[in-house]
Amino acid sequence: MERTSEFRKSILSSDVIIYDLLTNKYEEVDYVIKTLKTADLGDSHKTLILLSSVMTWINTPAKFKVEGAEGEAEAEGEEPEEAEAAEGEGEPPELDANGEPIVKKKPIYFKESDYHLRVPDENYQQMKTLETLAMSSVKTQPKLTVHVLCSGIRYGLGEGRLYELFKAAWLQNPMALSYTGKGENLIPTIHINDLGRLVRRMVQASSLKTAQDKALHAKQYIFAIDRTPKPTQKILMTAISKGMGTGHVDSRGEAAYSHYPREQKEFLYINLKMRTSDAFKDGEVPEDAGEEAEEMAKKLKFPWHCEKGIGENIRMLNEEFNAYRGLHPVKIFLSGPPASGKTHYAERLSHYYNIPRVHAKEISGRIFALAKFEEGQGTEEGERIKAKIDEIKQQMVEAIEAARGDVAEPEEIDREKLVVRLPDDLMFEYLRKRLTENDCRNRGYVLDGFPRTYRQAREIFLVKKKKFDKETGEEIIEEEEALEEGKEKSWDDYEIRQDIFPKSFILFDAPSDAQLLQRIKDSLSEQEVFGTHNNAADMTRRIAQYRLANNSTVAEPPLK
Length: 560
Description:
Elements: H1 5-12, E1 16-20, H2 26-38, E2 46-53, H3 72-75, H4 81-85, H5 125-137, E3 144-151, E4 153-155, H6 163-171, E5 176-178, E6 189-191, H7 192-205, H8 211-217, E7 221-224, H9 233-244, E8 248-250, H10 293-300, H11 309-325, E9 330-335, H12 342-353, E10 357-359, H13 360-370, H14 380-404, H15 424-435, H16 438-442, E11 444-448, H17 454-461, E12 462-464, E13 467-468, E14 475-476, E15 494-496, E16 504-507, H18 513-523, H19 526-529, H20 536-550
Parallel strand pairs: 1-2, 2-3, 3-7, 4-6, 5-8, 9-11, 9-16, 10-11
Antiparallel strand pairs: 12-15, 13-14
């Protein structure tokens, strides 16, 4: 930065000067502050807004209630006892060497007026110096107003310091995000849009038109943080992992982030109990507003983008992350008769694009896994599936017994060994669920051979069009009508589910069915074929079924 006369002139000709201390050089900001502090500003009034960071507080000891200071807890917004007790409820108190209960002090919130207590890391000492220099400048420069916005860890769009965590969750590599220690430390955060909107509010407040403007104008140090209910490190990691990754977290701690740049991991050690500044409060509607009160109230509301933080907005943040980087999921559907090479190329495409291979065996495996649980330990979903499977097994048992006829001593049927073919509606339901999971939603998928027919594809990828009440605008929920026997389902009111629909389709085939059969003979040994559907008879049957469903000129359209 050259300290030219033009640069100095541009500073002094500006009514509002805004600097981000995280991205601008110390020397430039120092020069600007000293210029504003010492210059003759005449009749003009200047506003300097510095965007700082909670990193200037990282080494600040926790603040505790001073004994005898009545009303202090209420004034500083100490959390209710019930909220604190919930986490350790029912646990016996820790005892000291004499067997007496250890009374643990509970930290209270820092106030904005406590900025003199802040202790930065050595890497943020210069930032604190600039904050202090700017705020002290008003003592000798009455025409200058200074606002220091102490922002929480910033996220949104490019993600800044949270980029590596978002990236790891998006890639699901590693499978679990890690927290350090017990993960109970508090990490204040703010979306970059909300920080920008607060800056705009502070600039507008310089007009001093309302009582709120005057109150804001008088604020020097402001906690620019969102209203995350409980911003612990563990909750933050869990929210990112559930919203973008596998949902898993672990306590590997520092070892998990040893390869991260310093600025991408140092914030994990912050432990600051801070409250969102009053600067974010909605404006008050004048008593004489009359009929315009409701409309004025809307305009005076702070336009939060992520008021409740990362946890409650992670899906939106995921979409922003994708849009900012132009990330679009690769969704490929491979179809073709048995032995046409679908699975071979599905695995190669899965590896090449780093996207999951989704197939019928995986889906059925998930369904059966949900139905396996100890007595009384199942979920509502698991109970529903188990009941369905038990119903199918009962039908199989009855069919076997009917086929036996009057046998004197029939062999007992082992229900556990019965091979159940899951109903299509259950397979369709769980395939749709699989395709909306984070890895498929973010990166895409290779759908390997399922659905097998045009009818199945419609059941999976089509959804009923939404209808809305013309007067209220509310969605009209219509129940699916039961079809009469022999009647075909109408698809007139259906549309494609774009969130799960494949973007590319690849059809595999061979010049003749004989070549498909020969391919199995050449590639699999007798041992590998034994006990599978790849024997000659089953292969012939499966190929014929595929041809009937996809090559017929009188039946439903082919799957392509």
